[in-house]
Amino acid sequence: MKDGKNQRTVLTAEEEQRIINTFNSKLAVEDFSVAVRYEEIAAKNYSLSAGQYFDVKIDYVDITPKQFTQKMQDFTDNLDDLFKKSRILEKEINKQLAGLKYE
Fold this sequence. Notes:
By secondary structure, the protein is mainly alpha-helical. The chain folds into 2 domains: 1-57, no CATH class; 60-103. The chain has helices spanning 13-25, 38-43, 65-98, and strands at residues 2-3, 6-7. The chain has a two-stranded antiparallel ribbon with strand order 1-2. Strand 1 and strand 2 form a beta hairpin. The model has no long low-confidence stretch (mean pLDDT 89).
């Protein structure tokens, strides 16, 4: 949800309870939680950043050359669209800056 300039996640009661139950039972749940010893935390300079304790899993999917070509074309088209929007915004910014009066 948007809260002023900040965006934050609002948990449902069920999500909150799942977190509480997992924490209290000290469970390691696949793609959700990890259980580490104090020594591991100390070795990471007491950082509690989750990314240091979870293994990154990459699922590779075989695709055909035709699918690959299509994906690359979609990425290229999207990037071209973003570049066009960027040029339009750049012109608008320069136009607005030119209209500023300062002494």
